[in-house]
User: Fold these one by one.
Assistant:
Number 1:
Amino acid sequence: GEDVEQSLFLSVREGDSSVINCTYTDSSSTYLYWYKQEPGAGLQLLTYIFSNMDMKQDQRLTVLLNKKDKHLSLRIADTQTGDSAIYFCAEPSNDYKLSFGAGTTVTVRA
Amino acid sequence: EAGVAQSPRYKIIEKRQSVAFWCNPISGHATLYWYQQILGQGPKLLIQFQNNGVVDDSQLPKDRFSAERLKGVDSTLKIQPAKLEDSAVYLCASSRRTNTGELFFGEGSRLTVL
């Protein structure tokens, strides 16, 4: 995970948008991934983006990719209490070994 | 479809003791992974199997950790002897094929070494 960096904490009010940021190092990555981990549970694939895309939207989720700056972000619109979790950015190596960031803990307050 | 099953969910042992974790992947998934997740960190790959063969065990501390997937289905991860720094959640994941980032994770086995 040392090649993938994320801010550790984010607090957001219910109904607002959340933006989680990530920087990665391998410019040859074909896909980049976002995983979600709820308390006491394993990781669950949330969404991913192909490296030739700048943006991908999936319902309340928007992924933005800036390849020049090696920056990936995940925006959650209308954040709900069920969105409280740890969000991991992940990039694959050339042989598809996933490297995970340390995770961003999102806390949704009423 | 049933998810990835892991047991036990929790284990507390003293240092120098041994422990084993079991994982049953999603049916039909050829690739199985064991990850170590230390509190406050992202998961770190320990070992990857393709069917019953090892694809990558470069990050596995082989002096104390071992893993097997004898019949290409379920897998066991063993630690002997355990150290304090082995306290972590051990996550098992599976995928349909090797070259994918779409992994399906179990709930994990939380190990506390005293």
Number 2:
Amino acid sequence: NAGVTQTPKFQVLKTGQSMTLQCAQDMNHEYMSWYRQDPGMGLRLIHYSVGAGITDQGEVPNGYNVSRSTTEDFPLRLLSAAPSQTSVYFCASSPNSNQPQHFGDGTRLSIL
Amino acid sequence: KQEVTQIPAALSVPEGENLVLNCSFTDSAIYNLQWFRQDPGKGLTSLLLIQSSQREQTSGRLNASLDKSSGRSTLYIAASQPGDSATYLCAVPNTGFQKLVFGTGTRLLVSP
């Protein structure tokens, strides 16, 4: 029972590089979200999706893109990495709006 | 804009004590509230989800209460154990049901 799987677990990038953080869930959940966690700031919502083909912005979307071509996958793309994007990124999923969210173990990203 | 505050930021207790963690939110028009646990270097694990129509929810040694009118929730942990040591976060939906707003958490240390 894999749940929510995030890859990679760790990544170091140089300023200006691009990359994609992967998120996959095997629970057939419609709802998926990306958060970033920073010291003293708590978790903040970046983007979310309520089903395949449907995405929307959260609180801090700038510098990030998402797509949802399948129910299982919800990748997060950093277009041109900046040091301010150094953070721990979490992906979460839930069956609907009124059920608990299941979180992955996170991707720790450092931008030099 | 919904804001969530958790007090205290850190708590240290001896094993066996009963303890209460507090969560307050500014907009009482919520339809649920969630409590999560986060272990160091890990993702979040959902502990309890309270619907707006409920006043409390119980799971084992954990009991969460919700008072919408006052904008408060408490998480009661009975007979604390060293394995309870973790950061506890509460979260409520913002204007959109998928847009969770998190508190910054209470870091709990239970000493043997």
